[in-house]
Amino acid sequence: MPAANNPRIQQLIKKPVHLIAFGFGAGLAPKAPGTFGTLVAVPLYMLLQPLGIKVYLAVTLLFVVLGVWLCGKTARDLGVHDHSGIVWDEIVGYLITMIAVPMSWLNILLGFALFRFFDAVKPWPVCWLDRNVKGGLGIMVDDVAAGLLSLCFLYLLNAYLNI
């Protein structure tokens, strides 16, 4: 990827849309930017979870809709579809993973691990969405699907292991 497509933090600060899409700079990590982006979501979850399910769902839905635009615009501006530094989709995917999950360090870690697994491995339908949906929606939708898969597995772990 050409250096011109890899912004610096100074460039992100000048363009708030890019700064948010890059997870407030987390996407600039030289290795595993998606993991660092997901880490940004953990304190967001911890702030949102006590506000109740209605607020949590409303904010998460807003982040999904906003993400389609943020990620699409940033990708177009950089000239790279789904640039690895765009991590807003990972932030939202983790928030989806944690919908109505009781707050505990074990759940936070399990949710993190499950989401990173499904985001990296991309089982069906995540892989199909990743390959076939383009633009900002395409950047977001595979992480939404990975988040939903992670949520299901996290619910099952909670139900059967009494976490």
List keywords for this structure.
single chain, mainly alpha, 8 helices
Number of helices: 8
Radius of gyration: 15 Å
The portion of residues forming beta strands comes to: under 5%
**Separation of the first and last Cα atoms:** 43 Å
How many domains, as an integer?
A: 1
- Order of SSEs, N→C? HHHHHHHH
Question: What's the main sheet like?
Answer: none
Shape annotation: globular
Count of extended strands: 0
Uncertain runs: none
Helix content: over 70%
Class from helix and strand fractions: mainly alpha
Give the mean pLDDT.
Answer: 93
Structure notes:
With 163 residues, this protein is mostly helical. The protein has one domain. It is 71% helix and 0% strand. The longest helix is centred in the last third of the chain and has 27 residues, at 135-161. It is globular, with a radius of gyration of 15 Å.
Fold topology:
Blueprint: H1 9-14, H2 16-21, H3 33-48, H4 53-78, H5 88-97, H6 105-121, H7 126-132, H8 135-161
